[in-house]
Structure formats: C-alpha cells, structure tokens
Write a structure and sequence with these properties.
The protein is mostly helical. The chain has 12 helices and 6 strands. It folds into 2 domains: about 80 residues, 2-Layer Sandwich (Dna Ligase, domain 1); about 180 residues, no CATH class.
Length: about 325
Amino acid sequence: MSKVIKKWWFWAGVSLLILVVSSVIAFQLFFGAPQRRLSETEAGIFTVGLQISQKQVIEDLSEQGYIRSPLGFSFTLSRRNKSIEPGAYNLNKNMNAWEVAKTLTSTPYMKWVVIPEGLRKEETGERLAKILGWDEKQLHDWNYTYTAMDYDHLEGVYFPDTYLIPVNESGLDVANRLRRRFDEEFAPYMTKFLKQNVKWTTALKIASIVQREAAGKEDMPLIAGILWNRLLKDMKLEVDATVQYARDDRDNLTTGFWKPITPADKEIDSKYNTYKYTGLPPFPISNPGLDAIDAVLNSTETDCLYYLHDSNRQIHCAKTYREHLANIEKYLK
C-alpha cells in the first residue's frame, strides 16, 4: 500500500473519529441529561400552570435545570406530537430530553381543579370527579360521607379556589384540603363577626345567599344589608336561590342546578324555602367567596327591604312592597 493511500486512510479515520465525537458531544448538548447521577437535590416537582404557553414551559425547564437545550427539547417535544397538560410532574435531572418529553406528555400526577364561587358541594364534587377520574362510588362518598361528617361542615366550607391536587388523593383528603383552605381564609373574619355578636355559621349562611343572589361584587353589600333588614324585622327572606336549593334537593340533584324557579316551587315544603319559613335556612346553600363574606360583615346601611335585577343585571331596591311592585312593572315587564 502506497504512502499516499495510508495517509488517506489515516486522515479518513481521524475525520470519522472527530465526526463521532462531535456527534456525541452535540447529542449531549442538545438532548443529554443535565446530570448523570441522581441525588435527592436533582429530583423534584415541575409544575405547569394554567394558561401557560409551551414556550414558557420550555423556558421554565431550562431555568430549573431539567433540560440542557431549549432548542433540542423543542425538537424532541415536536416528535411526541402531544400537548403538555397543566399540572405537576415528577422530574429529575438525570433524565435526557426524550425522557422529560415523555413524562410531560403523559398524565400529570397532580391536576389543577378550579372551583368557582357559589357552587354547592355536589357541583364541586362533579368537577372533582371529572378532573380526578372518580367513579360513581367515590362521588357518592364525597357527597354523603366525606362532606357530611361534621354538623357545621355540611355546606359552605368547601372553599372556592384553584387547587393542585394529586390524582390519587382520597375523597376524604380532598374534603379536608378544601376545609383547611376555608379555615385559613375565614380565620381573619371569625373574631370580627364575634365582635358584632354574629355566629360564624349565621354569617356563612347569609354569605352563601348573597353569593347566589348578587350579579357581581358591587351588589353584595347592598343585598347583605337588605337581608339583615328582613331578618331583624322577622320577615321572610323570600329568596329565590334558597328555593332553587330546596327544589334541587327534592329532585335528588337529577335535574341540574340553579334553574329559575316556578310559582309551584315556592310551595315546596322545605326549611330551605324562605317563601314558606321565616329566618335563615338550616345550612348555607352554597360555598361563598371572600367578597360575599366581607359583604355580610360590612353590609350597606339601607332602608330597603326588597331588590331585583333588571335585564342588564343592574340592581334596584325598594323600601316598601308598593315600590317593589313598581320596580317590577318598570324593569321586568
């Protein structure tokens, strides 16, 4: 073999070696694990927030040290052809880009649950069941066991908020989680109601009605003031939302929630029917937010005893029933 050929093979081998080494280095730079060995400090929980963009997710992964290259991970993620669901994932820094992408396009081990203000516990249960994958028995246990273990916690204390909940968390633990959040949020109000000689359970019942009756935050103090006026005068509250609650209970929750009432509904024999019975219902009718609770504490001083909302959800109050009838004629007909 001539020297020229030997020299050619030598440089060809060197070039191939350089190519292989370069490829390995490039792969590590773009797709390799940030750490080769796993320690407790390198394993963690990665959270994908609600309404977060894929670009932001990749930036967060890079900043937190779970990927080496945003560009490389973007390519890897595109090959999965799946979206990243909001929630929490177990990641560690010895995962390569392909393993991270696989984990993030699988079901998260914690999911976000958004609970709006003003739901009754059964509605909250339906949301939890849908998101956490509960079966009928688990939902039944939520409705009739886990949220019915304490007299003062039958309703109103399953605080409306945004929660990140493990998908395998038991219904009892979820109920405790929501009650703890209520205790945390309600604690500053407890002493304030006591100073006004108002039981917290009474305040919560009124707040639950205010939450269902108001068209928005601005209405709440006025509605609370009117409800206080009627209670102090020993008048029937005559609130539609309480009748809706009674009717839906009567129908065993099979016909939906909070539909408009009919004249016949006002004849339902239930302690929740404030058209038939004087005073507050036995328990709250919904789970109110802080605005409604605050409105009960800081209600508007008013001479009004009646109120209604027009078609634009604007509130109008009246001091007398005659004025209320005039408002009905003016705004609702």
